[in-house]
Every structure is written in C-alpha cells, then in structure tokens.
Design a protein that fits this description.
Layout (H helix, E strand, L loop, with lengths): L32 E2 L12 H15 L5 H21 L9 E2 L6 H28 L2 H24 L6 H28 L1 H6 L2 H45 L1
Antiparallel strand pairs: 1-2
Helix pairs in contact: 1-4, 2-4, 2-5, 3-4, 3-7, 4-5, 5-7
Length: about 250
C-alpha cells in the first residue's frame, strides 16, 4: 500500500511478486527502474486489488461509510483521468517505471509495517467488534479501512502503463491526506465517547486507542516525512527528466 500501495513501494503496498525478478542496474539515480513484469500481458485486476475491493464492498455494505467518503473515491477517479489528459500526459513510451527499486529491503519492511498497522490490524479489530457488538468502535475505524482499501485498489489502476508518473504520485498523496481527517475522527471517538468506554471491555478499549494512535503517527509521518519531501520531488524529477530526453 502506499508509502503507496502499488508496485512502487511508496505508501503501503507490497511490491508485486513479478517485480522481484532480476533487473539491470541504472547508473542514473533518476532514471526509471523498468519492471520486467511489463513484458507480459498486464492483468486487469490483481489478487491484491480484488481483496481490497472485497473489503471496500463489505465496509460500504455495513452502513458505516459516509456519503462523503463515497464521493471522495468517485472524485479521485475523475480527477485522476483529468490530470492525465490535461496536466500530466504520458510523454514517454509505455513502461512500468518505478521511482524506487522494489528490491530495497528497507522500503519493503516499511511497506509491510504500514500494511499491518493500517489494514490488517484494523480489519481484525472490526471483525472482533462485530462479534462483541461494538458498533461505535466499528463505526470509528471503518472509514479509514474503506479509504485505505480504495487507495490500494486505485494505485493498482494508476500503476498500469496508461498513466504518467505524476498521476501515480497523486493517488497515495491524495488518499493519505484525506485519511488523516478520518484518523482524527477515530481518535476523537476512542478517547472522548463515554458510552463507548462503558460498553466495551478494557482490553478492546486499549487496543482501539493504540490502533488509532499508531495509525495517526504512521500516516502523518508517511505523508509529511516520506511522500511530500521524498517521493513527490523524486517522481517529478524523473518525469520531467525523461520528458526532456524524449524531446
């Protein structure tokens, strides 16, 4: 998922299994890393995308996702295509170019930690809440899980060979920014709802608070410490450098 949840290792996605095949090194640090998986026919939906789509459907069907979150996902799709057509057309030959080498062990560890904190544990927390009847806890965590699953799904779409590098950057930055607000609501719910405190076990109460705090800390760092100061400039430098070479 995205430091990205796509094949770039840029928010919180695990790198594609095919992307771990041997690659040639590039002496130019801003030259895109070619994905050998691109030589084969690209699948319409990966298993990861299908799993996230299932999570999106389940959380949406629970009635815990607001109309504003649905509208946000719809707007992100429309705006992504608008960026491609108007602002950042694909100027280089179609290829799956990655800003970071997917074999980088530190980035892979970072992405894995993000997936565990941001998706796997909150999903488990929601399922436990269903069993215990904790409607307030589910309601607080569901928007974050829905938006993160949507982000992973959209990153899979954006990382096809149809989209330019800036459009790929847009997805994790856009979604991560929006999820900060849902995490604020989750924190507020965990620490200020008296009825919630009295209706759940002490263990579940502490788990919910720890999850909310951990997600807020991780995703704030991901946005302010990684996506904006590191990933965004490097991606744009790569895009404009390649455009000049082709011109």
């Amino acid at each position: 998922m995205s430091g990205g949840v796509g094949p770039t290792c840029n928010d919180i996605s695990l790198p594609n299994e095919e992307a771990q095949a041997p690659e040639k090194s590039h002496p130019n640090p801003i030259k895109p890393v070619s994905n050998p998986a691109n030589s084969s026919k690209t699948r319409f939906l990966t298993l990861r995308q299908l799993n996230c789509l299932a999570v999106m459907v389940i959380t949406a069907a629970s009635g815990m996702v607001s109309p504003e979150d649905f509208a946000f996902v719809f707007f992100s799709v429309v705006y992504m295509y608008l960026l491609l057509k108007v602002a950042f057309p694909r100027k280089i030959p179609p290829k799956d170019s990655m800003v970071f080498d997917p074999r980088n062990k530190i980035l892979r560890l970072y992405v894995t930690i993000g997936a565990i904190i941001g998706l796997y544990l909150p999903v488990a927390y929601i399922f436990e809440g269903i069993l215990e009847g904790d409607k307030e806890g589910i309601k607080a965590a569901a928007p974050h899980v829905f938006l993160l699953s949507s982000q992973v799904f959209m990153e899979g779409v954006a990382f096809s060979d149809r989209f330019s590098i800036p459009v790929r950057v847009y997805v994790p930055v856009f979604y991560n920014t929006r999820r900060i607000f849902t995490l604020v609501d989750w924190l507020r719910s965990e620490f200020s709802e008296v009825d919630h405190v009295n209706s759940v076990s002490a263990r579940r109460l502490y788990v919910g608070r720890v999850l909310a705090v951990a997600n807020m800390a991780f995703w704030c760092f991901n946005l302010l410490g990684f996506l904006l100061p590191v990933y965004l400039p490097k991606a744009f430098k790569m895009y404009y450098s390649e455009s000049k070479v082709k011109d």
